[in-house]
Design a protein that fits this description.
about 300 residues, mainly alpha, two-stranded antiparallel ribbon, transmembrane transporter activity, transport, membrane, ABC transporter permease, cell membrane
Length: about 300
């Protein structure tokens, strides 16, 4: 028997082709990330410095934490455009609670509950009243943005010095705490999406909601839960943003929802639903963050950055 007819190498070749075809998007994103590092390292002063890489991780956490829940939402065939104002509104509420001398632990629990309730409201509008998710969350976007600006007169709400918030906005073993939290939540959501009945239900609903309903999946409950998770993670992001800025700001996180959605879509999640991966979203978050960071260091006009 000739060497070319042995089945083992052929099997390996087929397996490699299957692996590449299944992960072509992730492989492409890794190549893009490598190119971005090469281009910005050569042209953007200070890009490759350790301090700037920590800034990249902090910025990635702001996008990434919200992006984990957004991935499930888009896989299910829905969309959430209320993330940015929800993050900002939570930061404002946290700042006011701390000004009223509410203990930090209780204040954080209250704003986490607030975020979950706002997400649940969007989920109920979609799941119970069949309001399109874009319309439901756009209404929430407008309401939260307006309420935040009204409560603060468009001014930052300062937060007094606090050791825990300083730690949340700082570093642990040289790594931003927000980035560590992002990765812990990433691992949790990977487990949820791959190993739980709820995660499988999200994919089923996104693939064909009618068929999923006929198979016994409670489509209404799935839709409500994914928006609740989105609100909860937006609240987590709001707390970390307030810790980083040292204030609550209704104008903060402006346009964050578009960065989050872009990261998810760039990561390979189909807007039509039924397909996507959190690892792809992680790479998408890095791509979006690196582009933004590199453009700032290159001195590109902030308005033109939005074009890019």
């Amino acid at each position: 028997m000739s060497a070319s007819s042995l089945p083992l190498p052929q099997g390996k070749s087929v397996s490699l082709k299957q692996f590449v075809s299944r992960h072509i998007n992730e492989i492409g994103l890794l190549v893009v990330i490598a190119i971005l590092y090469l281009v910005f390292s050569l042209n953007a002063p200070g890009f490759i410095s350790l301090n700037n890489q920590m800034n990249v991780l902090r910025d990635a956490a702001t996008i990434g934490i919200a992006a984990w829940a957004m991935t499930l939402i888009i896989i299910s065939g829905e969309i959430d455009v209320s993330v940015g104002p929800m993050v900002a509104f939570v930061s404002v509420c946290l700042a006011f609670l701390l000004q009223f001398e509410v203990p930090l632990a209780i204040a954080c629990l209250l704003v986490l509950l607030l975020g979950a309730l706002m997400g649940t409201l969007a989920g109920v509008l979609r799941g119970v009243f069949n309001v399109p998710s874009f319309v439901a969350t756009l209404g929430l976007w407008s309401a939260l943005r307006g309420m935040g600006l009204f409560m603060t007169n468009a001014l930052p709400v300062p937060i007094d010095e606090n050791e825990v918030l300083d730690w949340l906005g700082g570093q642990f073993l040289g790594v931003p705490v927000s980035a560590l939290i992002m990765m812990v939540l990433f691992a949790l959501f990977v487990f949820i999406s791959r190993k739980t009945a709820f995660g499988r239900s999200v994919f089923a609903v996104g693939g064909n909601a009618t068929a999923a309903q006929l198979c016994g999946i409670n489509v209404r409950r799935v839709r409500i839960l994914i928006f609740t998770l989105s609100g909860l993670l937006a609240a987590v992001t709001g707390i970390l943003l307030a810790a980083r800025l040292g204030s609550g700001n209704a104008g903060a996180a402006n346009g964050l929802e578009f960065d989050v959605i872009a990261a998810v879509v760039v990561g390979g999640t189909a807007l039509s639903g039924g397909r996507g991966s959190l690892f792809g979203t992680l790479l998408g978050v890095l791509v979006i963050t690196l582009i933004g960071n590199g453009l700032v260091l290159l001195g590109i006009n902030s308005f033109f950055q939005q074009v890019v």
